[in-house]
Amino acid sequence: MPLQLQALLPFAAIVAAALAVRFRPARRTNGVVAAAGAGAAATIALIELVRLAPGERVDSSYLSTFPYAELTIHSDALSLSFAVVTASTACLLMLVRVVSRGDRRDPWFNWLIATAAALSVELAGNLLLLYVAFQLLTLAWSGALDEAAPRRRWLRFTQQASDLGLLFVAGLTIQSVGTSAYSGVPSDTIGPAAFLVALLPALTRIGALAMPLSGPQAPVLFEPAVAWAAPAGYLVLRLLSLTGGRVPTRTIEVALFAVGLVAAGMMALLAAVEGLRPSLPVRLVTVLALTALAISALGTPLSTLGAGWLWLLLIPLTGLTCVRLGPRSLARVILLLNLALVPPGAAFIGLWLAGQGLIQSTVLSLVPLALVALVVAAGVASVIALDEHLRIDLPSGWGLALLAAGAFPGIALVYLVAPAAMAVRAIPGGTFQVNPLGITAGTRFWPAAPVCLAVAAALFILLERLGTRLPLRRSSIDVVARLATIRLPKLRLHNLPDEVTLRRAYWAVFAAALAAAALAR
């Protein structure tokens, strides 16, 4: 089969499922058809990933568009790894929604289109196609966002304004080398300023994920939040691959690391102060995303592995956060454990790998990472409560699978994380070794399986015997909340320009950027 057709197969599976549910509305089997379409896309992407040779990259070009930017699907280890995780997470979200009986809406078409748009972001071969895919995500959510709701207007405005950064980067690359393709763009043509501008879409999407206006009103949120996490991680790692795995200057590297960890620490404190609320998992997901962003700025092979682990883990964790979990659901306990930056949380593997990379430069850099992990651990320990009537459901199996990946990280590290990291920068042989009990990074061994089992047993005993008397449960949270209360002025959202003005200004900037690129050519 021609490579151009193979690259389109994941999209064909999702589009076929979308058409099937579109022409058969309000059918009980629509959810099964939608989940099957997403699962088929994940399977096809996994087969394409396995068939790739080490370091192989396949670019499938379809159309040359004005001005001199080709529409290309880019298939390599990084792109296909994100596609596999995203489609699998979307499939799990749909299965959870199928077995839930509390909502009679029929969201399958919108979910499938959102999944296809997220895959197009991850497999985009150039900045122009990436920008178009971001806009497809916005259109895919149009059925979930009330266009007349003033509370949602700021979200649409931030989303569109941040995406303009991609236009400026595309114009700069077209002006420098005559194409906006990712492959073949030298790092010196991007520059520090353009690199920071291109990070804006990722930062605003992480921020939007951290500020939900209300808890979910259905068993599953209407739009899959993987559409937020996947483009953010992909954009960061792809931009790093352009610069050889390093940010353009040492100053930007230090600034990104510091800003990311400071923001992660503030969000972790906010999560610990808020306690057990519907927004707690979202806050912890944001802490993980900000930590991954900070680690992504470092230029060592081990930190690249750690950042790749965290970004890939972020997608299924964000998908699990979309599921409305009851107070007696075992999945809620497992989700909080997965979001913790300490064992048995699966995120700790990425944090440990990044820490080994930091040791190569300075031990002092580990201090802020350790502080963020301790704050997250304290916040999680203060809200986890074991109940003899805990209910086991499909999300519980989802969370247990992620915990198993943290206890036995070898399979995920070798077949998913390492290929994605190698697409960003070269990983020398002998950087890490894996065995059934843990990981050896350099000369340091981490016994993941024994430590995760021991810590899980200790947490179970602690929460069972002392759960109601833990120091962060009651009075101390109230004291910290009073000390941390800061009155901020309220934003007047109704002073924003109307939708027509924003749309005209938006496309005016788009046309100006394309005209400047064409004249520069």
pLDDT averaged over residues: 79
| Helical content band | 55-70%
- Kindly name the structural category: mainly alpha
Order of helices and strands: HHEEHHHHHHHHHHHHHHHEEEHHH
Tally of strands: 5
Give the overall form: globular
In DSSP terms (H or I, runs of 4 or more residues), the helix count works out at 20
Q: Which range does the strand content fall in? A: under 5%
Distance between the termini: 36 Å
> Rg from C-alpha positions?
22 Å
Can you list the strand order of the major beta sheet?
3-4-5
Low-confidence region ranges: 468-493
Main beta-sheet annotation = 3 strands, antiparallel
Would you mind describing this structure in some detail?
The protein is mostly helical and 521 residues long. It has a domain at 249-488. It is built from 20 helices and five strands. The chain has a three-stranded antiparallel sheet. The protein has a two-stranded antiparallel ribbon with strand order 1-2. A hairpin with a 2-residue loop joins strand 3 (432-435) and strand 4. Helix 12 (301-321) runs antiparallel to helix 16. The longest helix is centred in the first third of the chain and has 28 residues, at 150-177. It is globular, with a radius of gyration of 22 Å. The model is unreliable at 468-493 (pLDDT under 50).
Structure at a glance:
The protein is mainly α and 521 residues long. The protein is built from 20 helices and five strands.
Layout of helices and strands:
Elements: H1 3-22, H2 30-51, E1 58-65, E2 69-75, H3 77-99, H4 108-122, H5 127-140, H6 150-177, H7 191-198, H8 200-210, H9 226-242, H10 250-274, H11 280-296, H12 301-321, H13 330-339, H14 347-359, H15 366-383, H16 394-407, H17 410-424, E3 432-435, E4 438-441, E5 444-446, H18 448-466, H19 475-484, H20 499-520
Antiparallel strand pairs: 1-2, 3-4, 4-5
Helix pairs in contact: 1-2, 1-4, 2-3, 2-4, 3-4, 3-9, 3-12, 3-17, 4-5, 4-9, 5-6, 6-7, 6-8, 6-20, 8-9, 8-11, 9-12, 10-11, 10-15, 11-12, 12-14, 12-16, 12-17, 13-16
